[in-house]
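Notes continue from the previous slide.

Worked example: a multi-chain complex. Inputs as given:
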Amino acid sequence: MMPSEYAALVAALNLTSIPFAECGWKPRPEGAYGVVQLDYEAGSLNGDGGKHDRSWSGSVDLFYPKLTDRDDLVAEVEETLEAVLENCWELNSTQYETSTGLFHVEWVFECVDTPEEDPEPEPEPEGGDGDGV
Amino acid sequence: MGFDVSYHGMEEISEMLTAMEEGAEAAAAEGLYEGAGVMRKGIAEAALAIKTAPFKYASGGEKRLPSPEEKEILLSVGVGIARFTRNGTEIDTSVGYNVAGYADVNWRHMSSNARTNYKAHKFNGKANMTTSTLKAAGQYKSGDQDRKPIGAIANAINSGTSFMQKQPFFRQGVSKKKREALEAMSRRIQKRFEKIYGKTA
């Protein structure tokens, strides 16, 4: 099952001006493109004979032809990451591919599968101070 | 009527603190080395799990897997621990393939069934010599320009490229061993402190 935060991130990245695909492109598009994927399970809390709050590590890759600096694309991805995952991401690497002329920026993030929240319990009636005897 | 206040064992505590100041850096370095060793093991284990496929050029937007030769290079050089540096009161190191040197990666196309020569090179005992340094030292041989930095091969597998499938073995190895490394470090530092002032500390 897809973690809920990851689904939200994919949806948000698809709203940007960069074409994004999960796990890769075939064929590769011309110009700038992005890839987002989950890589491995980063850790989970166990309890009640089951797993709770599973957390996953994933990565966002941005490729663009290095004709000019494209800080706008980088900023766009970073703003999206911050909006969805707050601070659970970081810039992992940047590299230039001499053979293809593409510049590659890689971010890694961790996301959790937050279960659907229970409806808020009804507030207790006021007035019984102390132990309510 | 007054009352007396007396401290016992102040001298011992003072001695302990002095000893701690002297031994702290050595203990920290020992602990760091232990932790780096655990990390190194984790990355090496993760490198064993890299998926490979016989080399072929990635065409038509396809991605390729690393060739068995490239994986063999990573496994043969192993993971290194960098020289420790002081950073204020901290001691730092890094673990990885950064100074692993250069390797021949003259693999053949999968259709020609030729045996591939791969070899990790260390020039003059120093792994991280560049072409210009080699030329200046008069040690440059033809064919050296084909050698690829091993750190770049590791990075291409770990981060992926536009034509190489991403396999984040490095991050996964570090992530799996993080807790174990912390435990190993604190065990080692504890042991060192016990040596300095007995079992009671």
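Summary box: The longest strand of chain B covers residues 102-105. The radius of gyration of chain B is 25 Å.
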